[in-house]
Design a protein that fits this description.
Layout (H helix, E strand, L loop, with lengths): L1 E5 L7 E2 L5 E9 L10 E8 L3 E2 L6 E9 L3 E5 L5 E3 L6 E4 L4 E5 L4 E9 L3 E9 L5 E3 L4 E6 L3 E5 L2 E5 L4 E5 L4 E5 L2 E9 L6
Antiparallel strand pairs: 1-17, 2-3, 3-4, 4-11, 5-10, 6-9, 6-11, 7-8, 7-10, 12-19, 13-18, 14-17, 14-19, 15-16, 15-18
């Protein structure tokens, strides 16, 4: 199993052009890809103001609130909804109009994007205080720490801080144990000839 730990504190946020927040890119494939040519991208954003989302044609997205009081979401073709830190990750296509309004102040969210027809993604919350998680086999798996403390990934013992990420690739399932909540992201190829 290939594994690397990405420390959130070592990453540099990028301000939005409209001044409404910042985005910190955590991981992208292929390495060094930009917004026009990534296969998948994982980032954490601080949203400080209301407004529309950028459009990403051909991209599927999942948004998970990880800090703050809430985000009122308006996605074209769907009833209005409110995203909180207790909500399941919200999947939606990147090529439909979306706008959001803050509830009670700035929030922090985790954003997963994958190129439709090439990569499928799945994001799930898991509270390790309730018991270990079994990470799925195959593809790329990322574990985003939503707390601080020890975590065991298979036989590897780690100390994690909020926002730190473990990225893994391999065919075998892996057991995850710890003392705080995490987000588990699975990324698998969906196009012909991809593995």
């Amino acid at each position: 199993m290939a594994m690397r730990v990405i420390r959130f504190a070592s990453l540099t946020p990028t301000p939005w052009k409209n001044g409404g927040g910042t985005t910190t890119e955590i991981a992208v494939s292929p390495d060094g890809a930009g917004l026009e040519n990534f296969d998948w991208r994982v980032s954490i954003a601080v949203v400080a103001g209301d407004g529309p989302f950028s459009l990403f044609p051909g991209i599927d997205r999942a948004l998970t609130l990880i800090e703050g009081d809430g985000l009122a979401m308006a996605i074209e073709g769907r009833p209005p909804l409110t995203l909180t830190t207790a909500s399941d990750p919200l999947p939606f296509p990147g090529d439909v109009p979306v706008s959001a309004s803050l509830i009670g102040g700035p929030i922090r969210d985790l954003n997963v994007m994958s190129r439709r027809g090439r990569i499928r993604h799945h994001v799930a919350r898991h509270d390790l205080r309730a018991g270990p998680a079994a990470l799925p086999s195959g593809g790329t798996r990322l574990v985003v720490s939503l707390g601080s403390g020890p975590m065991a990934v298979g036989e590897a013992a780690l100390t994690m801080a909020f926002g730190d990420v473990i990225e893994m690739a391999g065919e075998n399932p892996v057991s995850l144990q710890g003392s705080h909540p995490v987000l588990i992201i699975s990324l698998t190829a969906s196009g012909p000839g991809l593995r």
